[in-house]
């Protein structure tokens, strides 16, 4: 019965099948030129069918019936495989798109593979071989097959799992170690990633299952953005807040293509090195395709912004050592710094009227002490070692009493603070916090003692300021305490005291 069936197929029906397959193939090629590469296996199979069919004729002519039967069988297998390929292409590339559906590439691969295996089994049983027995009776074949298929199965299952759990989709940007690119295809064996250099990287699916990779995916209802980080080495003398401001504004004000305005760019100080501070400027890129050119544009704008703010790039110390620093250069530098300190002394109301030599004595004892917004300059209750002169910026004087904090005053350019603790030896009377970046110089006890000894009248001047400040501090604290709502027990105590005439 099976032989008759085979015989029928080998005959003119085979030629019909091959013709049908060739016609469908040509039609598909015309309708969907993009399928040119995918049709290649079909053409190869049809060619093999023709060769096998030629082999049948040759064997018959030679009078070898068994060879003719083998060749005939091969021709059928090839022809049906070609038809399977074509049918799957038609379903996935013509019918499903007509219905508005798309299926992942791996589904097409697996359908072809599944149908081909099924056809193989059917053909075996048509040829009189029971495929189930083949596997159950031959343990060696099963073992060899299982061993050989180990990697392949890992890749197939990996590909299916990647598709099912949505961890990787065609079109997404991925990063694997130092390599990044767009996923262009997920096949039954591998995932193809196209880099920006137009290289296609083939990664086995089983590798992706076992290893870590990054996927650039947009958040729900938000456009796709990718944070990029650019490093800048900047001279150490530039105030970090000024550098950060310049870097951020350089990008915000420039409106660079592919740079998102939201979230805004941000700069941070990431490292300090010999001769430079390292800053990281982070901005959000809207299209990963343009990473390098956009990085370059952002760098250009950031560098221009630094130049506008008179901030130079940092030079590593090794290079700086190449510059010969002679004594004149060093002395000029020291003179400039002393000049700055002298100006700080002269701008401070307390020392403005001192003769120049005493001002110079003070200047020699000053130490530069810059603070940034939010820093605590002195803390209430701490031991006092320094008197501070504010060159630039604003700082608040705050007093803690119980659970509340009272603002006493705001100190500005030319003001000084810390005299109470330094002159009386008492703990700091208040906390002083920077409301802006504050550029300060601080004076130690030794330097201050020198001037006090030379000019005792200064002690009187300072004690007048100190008294006035102390009074202001006390009255502010008192006002604040009275303004506080009293607890019922405090109220009762006051009423009892007043009723019996007991003073508070
Ligand atoms: P000291 O007590 O050493 O530390 C806290 C400083 O806050 C204090 O010295 C003063 O210099 C300053 N301070 C306290 N009260 C006032 C005030 N009323 N006005 C200005 N500064 C003050």
3D structure, described in words:
This protein has 4 domains: 2-137, no CATH class; 162-216, Roll (SH3 type barrels), CATH 2.30.30.60; 226-308, Alpha-Beta Plaits (2-Layer Sandwich); 344-500, Jelly Rolls (Sandwich). Helices cover 53% and strands 19% of the residues. It has 16 helices and 16 strands. It has helices at 2-31, 40-62, 65-98, 105-126, 131-137, 139-164, 205-210, 240-252, 291-308, 317-320, 327-347, 356-364, 419-424, 445-454, 457-483, 488-500, and strands at residues 173-176, 179-186, 190-195, 200-204, 214-216, 226-234, 266-273, 276-285, 366-371, 376-378, 386-392, 395-401, 404-411, 416-417, 431-434, 438-444. The strands form 4 sheets. A 5-stranded antiparallel sheet has the order 4-3-2-1-5. A 4-stranded antiparallel sheet has the order 9-16-11-14. The chain has a 4-stranded antiparallel sheet with strand order 10-15-12-13, covered by helices on one side. α1 packs across α3 (65-98) and α11 (327-347) packs across α12 (356-364). The longest helix has 34 residues, at 65-98. The chain is elongated. The model is unreliable at 1-5 (pLDDT under 50). Residues 378, 384, 397, 408-409, 417-422, 428-430, 432, 469, 472-473 line the site of adenosine-3',5'-cyclic-monophosphate.
- Given as residue ranges, the uncertain stretches (5+ residues, pLDDT < 50) are 1-5
Which ligands does the model contain, each kind named once? Answer: adenosine-3',5'-cyclic-monophosphate
Q: Give the CATH superfamily of the largest domain.
A: Jelly Rolls
CATH hierarchy class name of the largest domain: Mainly Beta
The largest β sheet comes out as: 5 strands, antiparallel
Question: Which descriptor suits the 3D outline?
Answer: elongated
Rg from C-alpha positions?
43 Å
- Proportion of residues in helical segments: 40-55%
Counted beta strands: 16
Which architecture of the largest domain does the CATH hierarchy give at level 2? Sandwich
Contiguous helical run count: 16
Give the tally of structural domains: 4
- Distance linking N and C termini: 121 Å
Strand content: 15-25%
């Amino acid at each position: 019965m099976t032989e008759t069936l085979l015989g029928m197929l080998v005959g003119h029906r085979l030629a019909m099948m091959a013709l049908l397959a060739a016609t469908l193939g040509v039609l598909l090629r015309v309708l969907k030129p993009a399928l040119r590469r995918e049709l290649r296996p079909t053409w190869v199979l049809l060619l093999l069918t023709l060769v096998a069919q030629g082999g049948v004729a040759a064997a018959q002519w030679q009078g070898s019936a068994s060879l003719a039967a083998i060749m005939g069988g091969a021709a059928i297998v090839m022809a049906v495989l070609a038809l399977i390929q074509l049918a799957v292409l038609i379903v996935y590339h013509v019918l499903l798109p007509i219905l508005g559906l798309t299926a992942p590439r791996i589904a097409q691969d697996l359908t072809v593979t599944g149908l081909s295996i099924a056809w193989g089994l059917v053909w075996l049983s048509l040829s009189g071989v029971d495929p189930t027995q083949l596997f159950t009776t031959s343990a060696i074949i099963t073992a060899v097959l299982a061993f050989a298929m180990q990697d392949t199965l890992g890749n197939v299952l990996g590909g299916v799992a990647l598709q099912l759990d949505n961890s990787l989709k065609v079109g997404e940007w991925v990063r694997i170690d130092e390599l990044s690119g767009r996923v262009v295809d997920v096949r039954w064996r591998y995932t193809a990633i196209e880099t920006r250099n137009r290289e296609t990287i083939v990664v086995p699916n089983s590798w992706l299952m076992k290893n870590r990779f990054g996927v650039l995916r947009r958040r729900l209802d938000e456009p796709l953005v990718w944070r990029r980080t650019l490093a800048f080495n900047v001279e150490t003398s530039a105030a970090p807040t000024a550098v950060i401001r310049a870097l951020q504004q350089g990008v915000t004000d420039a409106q660079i293509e592919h740079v998102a305005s939201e979230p805004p760019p941000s700069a941070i100080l990431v490292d300090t090195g010999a001769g430079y501070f390292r800053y990281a400027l982070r901005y959000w890129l809207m299209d990963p395709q343009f990473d390098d050119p956009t990085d370059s544009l952002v760098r250009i704008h950031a560098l221009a912004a630094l130049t506008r703010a008179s901030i130079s790039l940092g030079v590593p110390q090794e290079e700086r050592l190449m510059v010969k620093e002679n004594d004149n250069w060093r002395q000029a530098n020291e003179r400039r710094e002393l000049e700055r300190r002298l100006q700080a002394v002269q701008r401070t109301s307390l020392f403005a009227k001192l003769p120049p030599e005493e001002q110079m004595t003070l200047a020699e004892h000053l130490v530069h002490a810059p603070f940034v917004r939010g820093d605590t300059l002195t803390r209430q209750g701490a031991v006092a070692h320094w008197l501070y002169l504010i060159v630039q910026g604003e700082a608040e004087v705050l007093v803690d009493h119980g659970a509340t904090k009272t603002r006493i005053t705001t100190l500005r350019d030319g003001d000084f603070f810390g005299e109470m603790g330094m002159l009386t030896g008492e703990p700091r009377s208040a906390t002083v916090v920077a409301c802006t970046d504050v550029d300060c110089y601080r004076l130690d006890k030794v330097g201050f003692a020198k001037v006090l000894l030379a000019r005792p009248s200064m002690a009187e001047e300072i004690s007048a300021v100190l008294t006035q400040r102390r009074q202001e501090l006390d009255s502010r604290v008192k006002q604040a305490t009275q303004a506080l709502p009293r607890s019922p027990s405090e109220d009762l105590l006051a009423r009892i005291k007043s009723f019996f005439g007991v003073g508070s």
